[in-house]
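Sequence dictates fold. Below is an illustrative record:

_____
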Amino acid sequence: MPNHVRIRDVAERAGVSVSLVSTYLNSPDKVGERSSAKIQRAIDDLQFVPNEAARQLRNGVSRMVAFVAFDIGDPFFTAVARGAQQRAAEAGLRLVLAETRGDQQTETEYVALFKEQRVRGVLLAPAHDPASYLTGLRRYGIEAVLIDHAPAPGWPAVVVGNRAGGRLAVEHLLDQGCTRIAVAGGTLDIPQVVDRRRGAADSVADRSDVLLMSYDSTTRDVSAGREIGHRLLASAVRPDGVFCVNDSVAAGVRETLVAAATDIPGDIAIIGYNDIATEAAGFETLSSIRVPDEHLGSTAVDLLLKSLDHPGFADQVEFTPELIIRASSRRTL
């Protein structure tokens, strides 16, 4: 049954003016403690739900920030969203999530939907070239920040040095004595995967004694890693080191290799990317490349807030990845 409680009903129950209730709903910090308590008690008693659409229509400003990402199920993006949500809440904004699974049509439709809703801003972690999205958003007065994607001229962005991260991972495997190295997971239509593979290639550019192999997968989850693990075991040239484009793929590879009685890291050393050891069980011994995921999200919101105050603001912040060595790759040479 619909709830038709109005602001006027809340005001009457609380014994205050309608304007004071409105102020409490929009700027609670401007209302005194006693009045706030009375208004909130009336809201709870009457089960009043503010009409956000009407509030936005009156004020002309939305409190909604959209985060469009291609894989919210990836613990990395989950952590980024958590950091963005916390910072948005501190600024009086609310974060909504949209997952595209890398599908360009879905990505286009979500951006169009948020444009129609006149959201306050968009945090965009696209799987495809976002140029057309960005132009359309700004035409409607909506600012956007790119997350973990190659910066676009004239737009703020927070990025990870993925090429440097790929280089760190493979240099570590080289230091452990690996000479047949597989780069596992993803495809070349994903910018982050491209950059990580480029970094891997940089590491062996002057090493004629090292073989670098690529194992693609259409997804980048544990099941993709398991399938890659079987391919590694069946390969005529079995690698002695594996750099996986994320930790989920690395976990799947390791699971398959361990089930086949492979010595990790003695026979095959494994390193992942994103360091989700603190986010999910089973990753505690996995070497990885760490990026400050939550800080990435909060920084993206900070850039968005600045761009709201200064349209056209286009600062770009790059985070440096860090090598984290654990048992899955550490050998005694």
User: Anything to note?
Assistant: The chain has twelve helices and twelve strands. The mean pLDDT is 88. The chain has three domains: 7-50, 62-160+292-320, 162-291. The first helix runs from residue 7 to 14.
